[in-house]
Design goal:
The complex is a heterodimer of chains A (about 220) and B (about 325). Chain A has about 220 residues and is an alpha/beta fold. Chain A contains nine helices and nine strands. Chain A starts with a strand and ends with a helix. At the A-B interface, helix 6, helix 7 and helix 8 of A face helix 8 and helix 11 of B.
Chain lengths: ~220, ~325
């Protein structure tokens, strides 16, 4: 289970972005979180991805409460969660080739030796061709770069995936292709998914259930 | 004459008929020369007309050349770009027209940009100056475009804001204090000040949520209904369906289909297999992606660029299909009954 229990989070202690948000994702379940621009749903996604320490509330990952936050959670827990952001341009190091970008989580965790095999398996799964893998971000389109960012999120075989407006910048065909890649991975591994966005039609089609942001807040005990 | 020439001639005749077209684009081609002798064919042979009060939506995947086309119309391409073709912008009140592709920078800067062509930008946050208020943006634009006297400027700026439904109470705010929707309206207000007859909206709804997308495109539609011609460049098919009169589909730098919006989005559907694929990828339709990825614009195939991904491709697709009745395809789909 991925459980957020009465979480309050923000960037200034005195003015949190939201108060008391609660949300649960069961193993293998896909949940869509719907909210308008600026409501704080991206901040919630960052908390759920263990990248942002909440000001108050509990976060429980697979039965273990996330503690020992510094700015973010301890690595052993963090690597169980893969995350894809809205803007691939700002989420990719411009100096890395797409191969290096996808292998980066392995390098960062001291498992560089597995990189070649893992990239070779992931690239076709997200629809990247070999000629693209040697390029740097400025040499590929937004859609191609987002495919690489999704591959990177899957590199460590996470049990949980957080997709924060993953397809907001993309055309219809690339959107459908990326969603299909996520669903194929989930079918193979049983990973759970939290997809955050504002497109109700998309999230209704994609996820097992969708939650409205305001219900997420009022559900707080 | 080859068949290609015949069709061109026919297209030219239809252009004559399209009297009152605010913008007539014929054979618009943009190439970028790169180091090492490579060329990128960003836009090839684009033909379309746009009339007053009409909204044409140009749709396609990111990187298919849509934004380059808009930049070419404004003369804002980088130095390594080579353009050919014509883009005739009708003159004011029946005066002489201007070929936007042939005009020099002085003409474009002094008489075209902002005055005869208004640009609604992709990212209003990046379009506005962060250190100045919306009022200051508007007053500066009023001064530059209309030469309104200092005393009348404040009122003119407020009128301009009102026209784009920008709330007067927010005029003294800086761009970072505005929501995405209000920033978009501020940018639209700037685009409307010169009273241009042609509005270019380049991905005006990227990153906005659905309610804001609807409101933004409805406002653009209202400006078209006041007699302006609107070229809406977007990858958001729902936005195009909401306001467009006609839809032009671009693939790998070419316009592969132009169709009336009601037919394109209605039960009849588009005829080009790529256009069908795009619609079928929508989450409220089949939600299936088109297999494969678009070709590199620096390495386009000889024949139809979509053939490698196309379920209907045959040997004939090794030669490029000429546009016939609005569709550039050897095997256009028959209308869905």
């Amino acid at each position: 289970m991925l459980e957020l229990d009465s979480v309050t989070a923000g960037y200034e202690r005195r003015a949190p972005v939201f108060h008391g948000a609660s949300l649960t994702v069961a193993p293998g379940e896909s949940v869509g979180l719907l909210g308008p621009s600026g409501c704080g749903k991206s901040t919630l996604a960052r908390v759920a991805a263990l990248l942002h320490r909440p000001d108050a509330g509990r976060l429980v990952l697979d039965g273990t409460e996330v503690r020992a936050w510094r700015h973010r959670a301890p690595r052993a827990q963090r690597t169980a969660v893969g995350v894809v952001f809205q803007q691939p341009r700002t989420a990719a190091d411009p100096r890395l080739t797409l191969t290096e970008l996808i292998a980066e989580p392995l390098r960062a965790t001291g498992r560089r030796a597995e990189a070649a095999d893992r990239v070779a398996a992931l690239a076709p799964a997200v629809g990247l061709t070999p000629d693209l893998l040697g390029r740097r971000p400025h040499e590929v389109s937004d859609g191609q770069l987002q495919r690489a960012c999704l591959a990177r999120a899957l590199t460590l075989r996470p049990r949980w995936l957080i997709c924060d407006e993953m397809t907001a910048m993309l055309d219809a065909s690339t959107t459908a292709a990326l969603v299909a890649a996520v669903e194929t991975y989930r079918a193979e591994t049983g990973a759970g998914l939290l997809a955050v966005g504002h497109d109700r039609v998309l999230l209704n089609r994609w996820c097992d259930r969708t939650v409205d942001w305001k219900d997420c807040l009022t559900a707080a005990p | 004459m080859t068949a290609d020439h015949v069709l061109r001639a026919l297209a030219a005749v239809s252009a004559e008929r399209a009297e009152g077209a605010v913008l007539s684009v014929r054979g618009l081609t943009v190439r970028f020369r790169l180091r090492g002798g490579r060329t990128v064919d960003a836009v090839s042979d684009a033909d379309f007309d746009l009339g007053a009060g009409e909204c044409l939506a140009l749709v396609g995947e990111s990187g298919c050349g849509k934004s380059v086309l808009a930049s070419a119309l404004l003369g804002l391409l980088p130095g390594n770009a080579e353009t050919s073709g014509t883009a005739l912008l009708a003159g004011p009140e029946g005066g002489a027209g201007t070929d936007l592709l042939a005009a020099d920078e002085k003409t474009l800067a002094r008489t075209v940009r902002g005055r005869r062509v208004g640009l609604v930008p992709q990212s209003p946050a990046a379009h506005l100056t962060p250190v100045r208020t919306v009022r200051s943006h508007l007053e500066e634009t009023v001064r530059a475009l209309t030469g309104t006297s200092r005393r009348a400027r404040r009122e003119a700026a407020e009128t301009a804001a009102e026209r784009a439904a920008f709330p007067a109470g927010h005029l003294d705010r800086h761009p970072h204090e505005l929501s995405g929707g209000l920033a978009q309206r501020a940018a639209t207000a700037l685009a409307l000040i010169g009273d241009a007859r042609l509005l270019l909206a380049d991905e005006p709804t990227t990153g906005l949520d659905r309610d804001l997308v609807d409101r933004t495109v409805d406002e653009l539609r209202r400006h078209a209904d006041e007699g302006r011609a609107l070229l809406l460049i977007t990858h958001d098919l729902a936005a195009a369906a909401r306001i467009a009169d006609r839809v032009a589909v671009m693939y790998a730098g070419r316009i592969v289909e132009v169709a009336p919006a009601h037919r394109f989005f209605g039960p009849t559907g588009p005829r080009h297999p790529y256009a069908r694929g795009l619609l079928d990828a929508l989450p409220d339709r089949a939600f299936t992606p088109i297999p494969g990825m678009p070709p590199e614009l620096s390495d386009l195939p000889e024949g139809c660029a979509f053939a490698p991904r196309c379920p209907r491709a045959t040997v004939r697709c090794g030669t490029r299909p000429a546009p016939t009745a609005g569709v550039a395809c050897h095997h256009p789909e028959q209308p869905r009954a």
